[in-house]
Amino acid sequence: MPGFMAEKKSFSEPNMCFPNLANNDKQTLTKSNHCVRSETLDDVDDGSSLILPGLPDDVSKRCLALVPRSNFPAMGGVCKTWRCFIRSKEFITERKLAGMHEEWLYILTAGSKGNGSQWEVMDCLGHNRRSLPLMPGPAKAGFGVVVLNGKLLVMAGYSSIHGTTSVSAEVYQYDSCLNSWSRLSNMNVARYDFACAEVNGLVYAVGGYGADSDSLSSAEVYDPDIDKWTPIESLRRPRWGCFGCGFEGKLYVMGGRSSFTIGNSKFVDVYNPKKHNWCEMKNGCVMVTAHAVLEKKLFCMEWKNQRKLAIFNPEDNSWKMIPVPLTGSSCIGFRFGILDGKLLLFSLKEEPSYKTLLYDPNAAPGSEWQTSDIRPSGLCLCSVTIKA
Amino acid sequence: MVITAKGKEILEIAEEPEYVMLAKVEDLKMDMLRIVEEEEIKKIRLKTSDEATFEVEPSILKEMKRVQSLINTEAIDTSVAIPLPNITSRNLSRIIDFCWEHQYNTENLEEFKGRFLKSLNHQELKELLLAANYLNIKTLFDFLCNSFTDLIQNESPEFIRDFFNILNDTNSVKSMHAPAFQGSIDDD
């Protein structure tokens, strides 16, 4: 007979030795307190202060990661430790582990009548539409946009002030959790109309036009952990007006023009970061007016045929064409958005009767095409999707 | 000392004459004997930081992944109570309560959870969260994490700082008071 040996004790709270507990339990805690971003961008932070006093950080991190995304800006104002955690890569990872990732759609819309362009954001249902704080720096065109670790990078581009055009190498980062912009290191080469993409946590920028509107073959890579752009092997020939995407650890540059071809380049330049070299494929698409990556496939729309989606599968480098249904609207010309694993087709014309077309690659045959209520408040210049 | 109907907890009843207590303990001993006889399954005993010993049935123990793995991997002598030097009897009793309800209370679990949470002050909530983390009880850990999350949600930075006793080291007044989604360029 097992004894119930509880001595008659008052259950007034004894001093719990939880600080010990936290220490004894190290093997079950992941000790990854890296906040590289804060080291490069923040003021002094000795990292000694706990996220929640009395709790080990691993537990606190889980608690913070469970808060809905719309609360992050306020949470970022609590203290430096919180701010540092919320802007860290680890936070995004923790959210993903907890199944808390929320997908938000960011659309850059052209302002009406002289107003500058403006980023707007909506949640995965197209609700809670808000405007982002204004992009810093002069109004630009021809810049590159990439999403990296829950952040939006807006790179380079050109601006015209009083008739003088200047090409920029500046890079700005929008932190989607803290709802704020900050400036990152400049690129090595000022450029516009270039290709850019994220591959394995690094951002690549390739080609474009340079400061004197000369076409560029140069390329560079950005490492967010050290906030630094480093030149990589150049393209074999200058290329501009092109776009980039990343598949299976490789960078693909397509579209636009190249100085060695007449007209538009059908070549695909593929960069292998492991081997630091470029190779070529011949079956690219030309004159691409919209592109987006969804489920490891590239969706393009070519200028010559805006009634079809061209879908590139990098596994076998094949293309597949899917007709875009007629909707009774005269709309041709689209910009793409991605939300919840589906492709959204925003009209390039502000036509009230147009309902945003939605293509679901996983839907049952015959019902891939639907319409969606999600539409930008103005003309869509570009859009990105950020999970955090 | 009273063993509750669940046969799991040891609670204190104050102000009872000793003979009543003794009688009750005797009764309960008999009860327990019957239970032990009825149940073939072997219960495991856990000893808290304040030297109280709890008998825990396997279905509850299963939730305590840490204890379970101790038993499985280290071939611990289960005739001796397993010491849990980081857990008080009050918290262990709460934990067992929670695990029990979580397993067997199918009808008004939410109601129980509400009551459970209400009975905890901020400090106790922390202790229990740590205990759940230590014992690796996923259901309780997730539940308590979520209740912390609820404390943070929709609150201003000032409230959060006050509530959790966090030092304000943000020097930018602007960002402190900036409402959500009207942010500005970071100073840093």
UniProtKB/TrEMBL annotation, chain A:
**Gene3D superfamilies the UniProt entry points to:** Kelch-type beta propeller (2.120.10.80)
- InterPro entries in alphabetical order: F-box_dom, Kelch-typ_b-propeller, Kelch_1
Q: Which domain of life is it from?
A: Eukaryota
Keyword Cytoplasm on entry: no
List UniProt keywords, sorted A-Z.
Answer: Kelch repeat, Repeat
Residues annotated as domain F-box: 55-95
Concerning PANTHER family, the annotation shows: OS02G0202900 PROTEIN (PTHR46344), OS02G0504900 PROTEIN (PTHR46344:SF1)
Q: What is this protein called?
A: F-box domain-containing protein
**What is the organism of origin for this protein?**
Flemingia macrophylla
Name the lineage: Eukaryota, Viridiplantae, Streptophyta, Embryophyta, Tracheophyta
UniProtKB/TrEMBL annotation, chain B:
Q: Which GO terms describe its biological process?
A: jasmonic acid mediated signaling pathway
Keywords recorded for this protein, A-Z: Ubl conjugation pathway
Q: In which pathway does it act?
A: Protein modification; protein ubiquitination
Statement: the UniProt record of this protein carries the keyword Repeat: no
Which SUPFAM superfamilies does the record associate with it? POZ domain, Skp1 dimerisation domain-like
Locate the SKP1 component dimerisation domain: which residues?
Answer: 138-169
Stored SMART domains: Skp1 (SM00512)
Q: Which InterPro entries match?
A: SKP1, SKP1-like, SKP1-like_dim_sf, SKP1/BTB/POZ_sf, Skp1_comp_dimer, Skp1_comp_POZ
Which Gene3D superfamilies does the record cross-reference, listed alphabetically? Potassium Channel Kv1.1, Chain A (3.30.710.10)
Please list the residue ranges annotated as the SKP1 component POZ domain.
42-103
Q: By its UniProt entry, which PANTHER family does this protein fall under?
A: SKP1 (PTHR11165)
- Family from the record: Belongs to the SKP1 family.
Report the protein name in the record.
SKP1-like protein
List the source organism: Flemingia macrophylla
